[in-house]
Amino acid sequence: MKVIAINGSPRKNWNTATLLEKALEGAASESAETELIHLYDLNFKGCISCFACKLKGGKSFGKCAVKDELTSVLERLEDADAVILGSPIYLGNSTGEMRSFMERYIFPYITYSIDIQTFYPRNIPVGFIYTMNITEDLFELVGTNKLIESNEWVATRIFGYSESLCSTDTYQFDDYSKYASSIFNPEEKAKRREEVFPQDCQKAFEMGARFVKQQKALEAQK
Protein backbone atom coordinates (compact mmCIF):
# COMPACT_ATOMS: atom_id res chain seq x y z
CA MET A 1 0.00 0.00 0.00
CA LYS A 2 1.18 3.50 -0.82
CA VAL A 3 -0.36 6.62 0.74
CA ILE A 4 0.60 10.09 -0.48
CA ALA A 5 -0.19 13.31 1.38
CA ILE A 6 -0.13 16.71 -0.33
CA ASN A 7 0.62 19.78 1.78
CA GLY A 8 -1.04 22.87 0.31
CA SER A 9 0.26 25.14 3.06
CA PRO A 10 3.36 27.33 2.71
CA ARG A 11 4.33 26.18 6.20
CA LYS A 12 6.13 22.86 6.53
CA ASN A 13 6.00 22.55 10.31
CA TRP A 14 2.69 24.03 11.40
CA ASN A 15 -0.93 22.92 11.70
CA THR A 16 -1.65 21.48 8.24
CA ALA A 17 1.69 19.74 7.86
CA THR A 18 1.44 18.30 11.36
CA LEU A 19 -1.98 16.79 10.68
CA LEU A 20 -0.80 15.33 7.37
CA GLU A 21 2.20 13.79 9.10
CA LYS A 22 -0.12 12.24 11.67
CA ALA A 23 -2.30 10.84 8.90
CA LEU A 24 0.76 9.26 7.32
CA GLU A 25 1.80 7.85 10.69
CA GLY A 26 -1.61 6.19 10.83
CA ALA A 27 -1.10 4.75 7.35
CA ALA A 28 2.38 3.54 8.29
CA SER A 29 0.95 1.83 11.39
CA GLU A 30 -0.91 -0.41 8.91
CA SER A 31 2.35 -1.12 7.05
CA ALA A 32 1.77 1.35 4.21
CA GLU A 33 4.55 3.16 2.40
CA THR A 34 4.07 6.93 2.77
CA GLU A 35 5.17 10.17 1.16
CA LEU A 36 4.55 13.84 2.01
CA ILE A 37 4.79 16.39 -0.80
CA HIS A 38 4.98 20.15 -0.17
CA LEU A 39 3.35 22.05 -3.04
CA TYR A 40 5.15 25.29 -2.22
CA ASP A 41 8.44 23.57 -3.05
CA LEU A 42 7.28 23.11 -6.64
CA ASN A 43 7.14 25.49 -9.57
CA PHE A 44 3.85 24.82 -11.36
CA LYS A 45 0.63 26.41 -12.53
CA GLY A 46 -3.00 25.36 -12.65
CA CYS A 47 -4.92 24.00 -15.62
CA ILE A 48 -4.24 25.89 -18.89
CA SER A 49 -7.47 24.70 -20.52
CA CYS A 50 -5.73 22.92 -23.39
CA PHE A 51 -8.16 19.97 -23.17
CA ALA A 52 -5.43 17.54 -24.25
CA CYS A 53 -6.69 15.24 -21.49
CA LYS A 54 -10.04 14.98 -23.31
CA LEU A 55 -8.72 14.62 -26.88
CA LYS A 56 -9.81 11.29 -28.39
CA GLY A 57 -6.78 9.33 -29.46
CA GLY A 58 -4.43 11.95 -28.01
CA LYS A 59 -1.24 10.90 -26.24
CA SER A 60 -2.35 12.71 -23.09
CA PHE A 61 -5.91 11.36 -23.04
CA GLY A 62 -6.97 11.08 -19.38
CA LYS A 63 -3.75 12.73 -18.20
CA CYS A 64 -2.47 16.27 -17.77
CA ALA A 65 -0.31 17.25 -20.73
CA VAL A 66 1.50 20.13 -19.03
CA LYS A 67 5.13 19.40 -18.23
CA ASP A 68 6.56 21.12 -15.17
CA GLU A 69 7.62 20.30 -11.61
CA LEU A 70 4.17 18.89 -10.80
CA THR A 71 4.34 16.28 -13.56
CA SER A 72 6.34 13.69 -11.62
CA VAL A 73 4.02 14.15 -8.63
CA LEU A 74 0.97 13.42 -10.76
CA GLU A 75 2.69 10.32 -12.12
CA ARG A 76 3.43 9.03 -8.61
CA LEU A 77 -0.16 9.69 -7.58
CA GLU A 78 -1.34 7.26 -10.25
CA ASP A 79 0.11 4.42 -8.15
CA ALA A 80 -1.19 5.65 -4.78
CA ASP A 81 -3.69 3.52 -2.88
CA ALA A 82 -4.92 6.56 -0.92
CA VAL A 83 -4.38 10.31 -1.17
CA ILE A 84 -4.79 12.95 1.53
CA LEU A 85 -4.90 16.63 0.60
CA GLY A 86 -4.23 19.23 3.27
CA SER A 87 -4.72 22.99 3.14
CA PRO A 88 -5.34 25.93 5.42
CA ILE A 89 -8.37 28.03 4.58
CA TYR A 90 -7.44 31.39 3.07
CA LEU A 91 -10.25 33.83 2.30
CA GLY A 92 -12.84 31.08 2.56
CA ASN A 93 -11.08 28.58 0.29
CA SER A 94 -8.07 26.30 -0.03
CA THR A 95 -4.77 27.97 -0.84
CA GLY A 96 -4.04 28.97 -4.42
CA GLU A 97 -1.40 26.25 -4.64
CA MET A 98 -3.89 23.60 -3.58
CA ARG A 99 -6.54 24.84 -5.99
CA SER A 100 -4.03 24.81 -8.87
CA PHE A 101 -2.94 21.31 -7.86
CA MET A 102 -6.53 20.05 -7.77
CA GLU A 103 -7.17 21.42 -11.25
CA ARG A 104 -4.21 19.48 -12.59
CA TYR A 105 -4.85 16.33 -10.54
CA ILE A 106 -8.61 15.96 -10.80
CA PHE A 107 -9.73 17.61 -14.04
CA PRO A 108 -7.97 15.16 -16.41
CA TYR A 109 -10.03 12.31 -14.92
CA ILE A 110 -13.35 14.11 -15.38
CA THR A 111 -15.26 13.09 -18.49
CA TYR A 112 -17.90 14.92 -20.48
CA SER A 113 -19.48 11.59 -21.42
CA ILE A 114 -22.98 10.58 -20.38
CA ASP A 115 -22.13 6.96 -19.67
CA ILE A 116 -18.67 7.38 -18.06
CA GLN A 117 -18.06 9.61 -15.05
CA THR A 118 -14.33 9.15 -14.60
CA PHE A 119 -11.19 8.06 -16.41
CA TYR A 120 -9.64 6.98 -13.10
CA PRO A 121 -9.17 3.20 -13.36
CA ARG A 122 -9.97 2.14 -9.78
CA ASN A 123 -11.44 3.23 -6.45
CA ILE A 124 -9.24 4.86 -3.82
CA PRO A 125 -10.06 7.02 -0.79
CA VAL A 126 -9.22 10.71 -1.05
CA GLY A 127 -9.20 12.64 2.20
CA PHE A 128 -9.24 16.36 2.83
CA ILE A 129 -7.69 17.97 5.89
CA TYR A 130 -8.51 21.64 6.43
CA THR A 131 -7.06 23.96 9.05
CA MET A 132 -8.58 27.34 9.77
CA ASN A 133 -8.68 30.21 12.20
CA ILE A 134 -12.49 30.36 12.26
CA THR A 135 -14.77 28.34 14.51
CA GLU A 136 -17.28 25.79 13.25
CA ASP A 137 -20.23 28.09 13.92
CA LEU A 138 -18.91 30.38 11.16
CA PHE A 139 -18.78 27.63 8.50
CA GLU A 140 -22.07 28.56 6.89
CA LEU A 141 -21.42 32.31 7.06
CA VAL A 142 -18.12 32.14 5.14
CA GLY A 143 -19.11 29.19 2.94
CA THR A 144 -16.66 26.63 4.32
CA ASN A 145 -19.44 24.04 4.46
CA LYS A 146 -20.01 24.45 0.72
CA LEU A 147 -16.29 24.09 0.00
CA ILE A 148 -16.16 20.84 1.95
CA GLU A 149 -19.29 19.46 0.29
CA SER A 150 -18.12 20.42 -3.20
CA ASN A 151 -14.66 18.90 -2.86
CA GLU A 152 -16.02 15.69 -1.36
CA TRP A 153 -18.62 15.38 -4.13
CA VAL A 154 -16.03 15.76 -6.88
CA ALA A 155 -13.52 13.42 -5.23
CA THR A 156 -16.16 10.76 -4.63
CA ARG A 157 -17.32 11.00 -8.23
CA ILE A 158 -13.80 10.59 -9.60
CA PHE A 159 -12.05 8.34 -7.07
CA GLY A 160 -14.90 6.50 -5.37
CA TYR A 161 -14.71 7.71 -1.76
CA SER A 162 -13.92 10.89 0.14
CA GLU A 163 -14.09 12.30 3.65
CA SER A 164 -12.90 15.46 5.41
CA LEU A 165 -11.30 16.51 8.68
CA CYS A 166 -11.56 20.12 9.84
CA SER A 167 -9.27 21.57 12.48
CA THR A 168 -10.85 24.85 13.57
CA ASP A 169 -9.86 27.86 15.68
CA THR A 170 -6.21 27.00 15.16
CA TYR A 171 -3.13 28.59 16.72
CA GLN A 172 -1.55 30.89 14.15
CA PHE A 173 1.45 32.58 15.80
CA ASP A 174 4.13 31.66 18.31
CA ASP A 175 3.66 35.07 19.91
CA TYR A 176 0.35 36.87 19.37
CA SER A 177 1.72 40.08 20.92
CA LYS A 178 3.92 40.64 17.85
CA TYR A 179 0.97 40.84 15.45
CA ALA A 180 -2.09 43.02 14.92
CA SER A 181 -4.46 40.38 16.27
CA SER A 182 -6.31 41.92 19.20
CA ILE A 183 -9.60 40.17 18.34
CA PHE A 184 -8.05 36.92 19.58
CA ASN A 185 -7.38 35.79 23.12
CA PRO A 186 -3.86 34.30 23.10
CA GLU A 187 -4.50 32.29 26.26
CA GLU A 188 -7.62 30.70 24.80
CA LYS A 189 -5.81 29.99 21.55
CA ALA A 190 -2.93 28.35 23.41
CA LYS A 191 -5.33 26.30 25.52
CA ARG A 192 -7.16 25.06 22.44
CA ARG A 193 -3.88 24.07 20.78
CA GLU A 194 -2.91 22.16 23.91
CA GLU A 195 -6.26 20.45 24.47
CA VAL A 196 -8.10 20.21 21.11
CA PHE A 197 -5.38 20.06 18.46
CA PRO A 198 -4.05 16.73 19.80
CA GLN A 199 -7.57 15.32 19.30
CA ASP A 200 -7.45 16.50 15.67
CA CYS A 201 -4.05 14.82 15.32
CA GLN A 202 -5.57 11.57 16.55
CA LYS A 203 -8.42 11.91 14.06
CA ALA A 204 -5.87 12.42 11.27
CA PHE A 205 -3.95 9.34 12.43
CA GLU A 206 -7.17 7.33 12.36
CA MET A 207 -7.98 8.60 8.84
CA GLY A 208 -4.65 7.37 7.52
CA ALA A 209 -5.01 3.98 9.19
CA ARG A 210 -8.64 3.63 8.09
CA PHE A 211 -7.82 4.35 4.45
CA VAL A 212 -5.21 1.59 4.37
CA LYS A 213 -7.60 -0.86 6.02
CA GLN A 214 -10.28 0.02 3.45
CA GLN A 215 -7.94 -0.61 0.55
CA LYS A 216 -6.67 -3.87 1.99
CA ALA A 217 -10.26 -5.04 2.35
CA LEU A 218 -10.96 -4.12 -1.26
CA GLU A 219 -7.87 -5.97 -2.44
CA ALA A 220 -8.88 -9.03 -0.44
CA GLN A 221 -12.21 -9.15 -2.27
CA LYS A 222 -10.58 -9.37 -5.69
Automatic annotation (TrEMBL):
Which one Pfam family would you cite for this protein? FMN_red
Outline the extent of the NADPH-dependent FMN reductase-like domain.
Answer: 1-105
Q: Tell me which cofactor or cofactors this protein depends on.
A: [4Fe-4S] cluster; FMN
Q: Which UniProt keywords apply?
A: Flavoprotein, FMN
Q: Which domain of life is it from?
A: Archaea
Q: Does the keyword Flavoprotein apply?
A: yes
Q: Which GO terms describe its molecular function?
A: oxidoreductase activity
Family, according to the entry, reads as follows: Belongs to the SsuE family. Isf subfamily.
Q: What is this protein called?
A: Iron-sulfur flavoprotein
